[in-house]
Amino acid sequence: MSNIENKHNANLNRDLFAISLDPAGNTSLQAQLLEALRAIIVTSQNLTGARLPASRILAAELSISRTTVQVVYDQMISEGYLVTRRGSGTYVAHDITHLRSPTPQARPARPVLKPWQPFQTGLPDQSLLPYQTWARQLERAWRTPEPDLLMRPDPLGWYPLREAIADHLAAWRNLHCDPEQVFITSGAWEALEGIFCGLVGSGKTVAVEDPCWPKTHDILRVTGCKIHAVRIDAEGLDAGKIPDDVSAVIVTPSRHYPTGLNLPLSRRTALLDWAKRTGALVIEDDYDSEFRYRGQPLPSLSGLDGRANTIYLGSFSKLVSPALRIGYLVVPIHLLDQIRRHLGRVGPRASLIPQPALATFMQSGEFAIHLRRMRRTYARRQSHLLDALQPVSDLLDLQPDPSGMHLCLSLKPQLARRVSDQEICRRAKKIGLHVGALSDHCVLPDKMQGLLLGYAAFDEQALSEAADRFANLLRSV
Amino acid sequence: MSNIENKHNANLNRDLFAISLDPAGNTSLQAQLLEALRAIIVTSQNLTGARLPASRILAAELSISRTTVQVVYDQMISEGYLVTRRGSGTYVAHDITHLRSPTPQARPARPVLKPWQPFQTGLPDQSLLPYQTWARQLERAWRTPEPDLLMRPDPLGWYPLREAIADHLAAWRNLHCDPEQVFITSGAWEALEGIFCGLVGSGKTVAVEDPCWPKTHDILRVTGCKIHAVRIDAEGLDAGKIPDDVSAVIVTPSRHYPTGLNLPLSRRTALLDWAKRTGALVIEDDYDSEFRYRGQPLPSLSGLDGRANTIYLGSFSKLVSPALRIGYLVVPIHLLDQIRRHLGRVGPRASLIPQPALATFMQSGEFAIHLRRMRRTYARRQSHLLDALQPVSDLLDLQPDPSGMHLCLSLKPQLARRVSDQEICRRAKKIGLHVGALSDHCVLPDKMQGLLLGYAAFDEQALSEAADRFANLLRSV
């Protein structure tokens, strides 16, 4: 049987098995079935040549007698809707156009997704994930699922995944916590929304770094919190500049977003002291610090705090794939009840489907191997990009970055005098290069200037080619 | 090799491959590796007997010389951390307790999920899903994923799934729409939140049925909308009772939640006329009408409207599994840009992992076969439960329901005089029976009384046993 015939058969079965008949209806079961079957054949485009189920099977599916089905089939054969081939069954006739209602419009073509263009930020190179392993682990988890997978999904997440995350954080981030403190989310938006709605509360003020991830502002607005932006200096966020009446502060200590700055120990201690004194929550967004190329990965702020006042935010979007929609929170023990209540109320968002496979991926050590491999790859790509940009070293400050997935490059005076970062980005976009402007991440006056160039998702050839075009552009402005 | 040894090896590799060394550090690479390896062995509980990777492999992983690794291994053998077995490699020593820091606490036991108890509502019988098929489709989708699966996930959802949903709605719900109008969400909460934030707007008033799904009130509060509850009558929601100044109304026309009432055609037409006149949005929550046991499934309200003003909400939580966290919206064409902007801003929540498998499940016809099978099963369970409750037919109004996954039973005067629905539920809970109170779904005064008994997730034996206990309880109050 051809694929097309297979598909037509499946379409027909889908529609037939959806028929409901009413034994107490105004017309006989036979009349109801006749009408329903006629409607299916007349309105569907993709049934030509499809084979009808044996009368015995359709009768069982619809809980009616086999005779009723046979009478209806015979009637439709005589009307020309169906044909019969001796010894082989009953089929939808090929030429029923004269029986059809006017043709519905053809379905539009599928939209084409825009490919990821250099130097877009925020995506890992998803082509390097070991999909064979990943697909096998998905298959194993769901072929004969553990009984707990068939219960109402726990809004807190799949427990073995929470365990695997606790192990990972201990090994990679010096963050020692109990799996009970780890909560699975569908990503940073849900996690922050949960913290603002469930722990901080509408109307309260939250301090953010300036510059920062622009969506933080959106989420704070949606949850009704007030925003207090604090401009970072050469060392990052200074706790001394945060007013005492804020209820929480969001910080990216291991790698400031988007500048890449690392918050020094003295500043970390000062921040934790400030939080202890004011009772404010510290929300540590640790979005990609596993990708550290030189030196030990820095311990997390939460690990330093003993997590008394610090909530840790992690995500698998950059470490594995954004297709997962899986992130997590690590919450201090004294806040567990409050966040559990909130998550119980809003219910689970993160799909349970990938969670057992991800837990196995982590516990088997494949995850660490993948991280290490990506770290080597990204380190190579970063230095490749820096080399490729050498021709414009008089225009851009080409500092290597010890970590991350993008470079944040300052404009040298010779370039900064002539043009703004936003203007460069606008012109780059016209030639298919997506460069980010640092100033787009600021809300305070006297916005910082800089260019964000993602390199993680592009191979060396693509980076060379894009860097050449970008250098030409910079020379021409 | 035993499973335990395998696990220990994986743990060790995970930790080793996570080490970062700094060639520009204050100490030599050798000293750094020695310290890191010592720390791993001393702090980890689960490495006893684990085999270390060959020096060649670890050297390649850490980008250092093989000699450095070999010197460190030798040093640690002499210190007693490692042992070597001739011709077989280097292992973590068995007796290193004297070298360890104080033992960290053992991990607590995994919490046990509470099994689903009769007569809890809202869950399908997940044990009846064809997991072999489902697991195979997951594996196929991700073994060699289509290029589009490796791009940034589309916040609107995986296009072939949107197509499959459009086909399903045409066949089952008489709702004809373009796949562009279908948006994938992580479920009803996200869908409603998206409508209230993205289309209705904070501060506006939304009308809800009384009784209704209690979380609707939570979502409206979180999004800053005002609530106007309208008590339903024997025919359901009466559009004449909705004030003209509300911006939207949420309605469950095919099967009122939780009473099961079907909104008659005259009321539907009146509601659409009202919406046309006032310009208000109608949000049709169609959560389980595929499970209709007698008569044709009723066409959706959105299908009747031509969707001019009606947004349709669907979900796979009850039709397939709540583990998916996949639901959807169907939005009228004139609102597409607005909802796209909103979804683009908040980003995707629904995991991409199950979406291609679900699309295949639907397009292959397996989904329709599953629905039909569940429909037969649930119909059988409902009549079984009604039979089992016959002994208390003097206390409860045992009307069969032509659709749904739970019964909403009125209290007969003899019972209603003695006790409230909430009191019955409290007492039932004490004997492990989860019965819902209709009054808990009301906010207006003079709350309606009734009992909600879910039957879909329980087999006949469980239903008989639970019905017996419940009948005894009712006799005793």
TrEMBL record, chains A, B:
<dbReference type="InterPro" id="IPR036390">
    <property type="entry name" value="WH_DNA-bd_sf"/>
</dbReference>
<protein>
    <submittedName>
        <fullName>HTH-type transcriptional regulatory protein GabR</fullName>
    </submittedName>
</protein>
<feature type="domain" description="HTH gntR-type">
    <location>
        <begin position="27"/>
        <end position="95"/>
    </location>
</feature>
<dbReference type="GO" id="GO:0003700">
    <property type="term" value="F:DNA-binding transcription factor activity"/>
</dbReference>
<dbReference type="Pfam" id="PF00155">
    <property type="entry name" value="Aminotran_1_2"/>
</dbReference>
<keyword id="KW-0805">Transcription regulation</keyword>
<dbReference type="InterPro" id="IPR004839">
    <property type="entry name" value="Aminotransferase_I/II_large"/>
</dbReference>
<dbReference type="Pfam" id="PF00392">
    <property type="entry name" value="GntR"/>
</dbReference>
<keyword id="KW-0804">Transcription</keyword>
<dbReference type="InterPro" id="IPR015424">
    <property type="entry name" value="PyrdxlP-dep_Trfase"/>
</dbReference>
<dbReference type="InterPro" id="IPR000524">
    <property type="entry name" value="Tscrpt_reg_HTH_GntR"/>
</dbReference>
<comment type="similarity">
    <text>In the C-terminal section; belongs to the class-I pyridoxal-phosphate-dependent aminotransferase family.</text>
</comment>
<dbReference type="InterPro" id="IPR051446">
    <property type="entry name" value="HTH_trans_reg/aminotransferase"/>
</dbReference>
<dbReference type="GO" id="GO:0003677">
    <property type="term" value="F:DNA binding"/>
</dbReference>
<keyword id="KW-0663">Pyridoxal phosphate</keyword>
<keyword id="KW-0238">DNA-binding</keyword>
<dbReference type="GO" id="GO:0030170">
    <property type="term" value="F:pyridoxal phosphate binding"/>
</dbReference>
<dbReference type="InterPro" id="IPR015421">
    <property type="entry name" value="PyrdxlP-dep_Trfase_major"/>
</dbReference>
<dbReference type="InterPro" id="IPR036388">
    <property type="entry name" value="WH-like_DNA-bd_sf"/>
</dbReference>
